[in-house]
Amino acid sequence: MRYALIFLILTVNFARADDENFTRKAAKHYNLTPLSDYLQDASSNIHALLEVTKRCSALLGSSAWALSHLNGLSDDDPQILDLDTMYEDLRQFSFRVHVQAIRGVELNQDTYTESVIEVDPDIHDYQTQYFGRLHRNHDKDATLIENDPLLQDETFACIGTHEQLREGGYF
Fold first, then answer.
1. Is 41 helix (H, G, I), strand (E, B) or coil?
2. Coil, strand, or helix at residue 164?
3. Distance CA 142, CA 154 (A)
4. pTM
5. HSE on the CB side for 25, CA within 13 Å?
6. What are the residue ranges of helices labelled H in the chain?
7. DSSP state of 72
8. CA separation (Å) from 119 to 66, 89, 112, 142?
9. Model confidence over 39-89: pLDDT tens digits?
10. Residue 35: alpha-carbon gap to chain centroid
11. Which of 22, 53, 59, 157 gives 94 a disulfide partner, CB atoms 3.0 to 4.6 angstroms apart?
């Protein structure tokens, strides 16, 4: 039992060190072009719309995670629940755009699964980069986006994008 406890403590410390290295690396490798480059074209270019929905899903999801893990809000906090809902709505919308508008096929279980396989890795990569930047901001000045004009603009744009799609009846 004693050895199991020591092993558990060491495992948690190694995992925490890996997480810290991961977020530092993600923050250093943040290389996303401004979302505004895609927003201008999203109404007329389906590929730009897909990029916006993937990026917004990732930003809102990583923001919820950052609020929970960096700022200590509970997972049932209304702000986190709202961000999680927007994350999942935009994620699902990304799959539909990919299947129906880009691939031009009917949405069914097979095409949905194929879309998840193709789209989710991009969303995950964007989440990693956004969370790295949020983590860096938190380490630097104990804020997430308050002193980061780019993330402020992108967060505002993503919430607005979600609101427009919701009002349009897409979710």
1. coil
2. helix
3. 19
4. 0.82
5. 8
6. 2-28, 36-39, 46-69, 78-96, 109-141, 149-167
7. -
8. 22, 14, 10, 32
9. 999 999 999 999 999 999 999 999 999 999 888 899 999 999 999 999 999
10. 13
11. 53
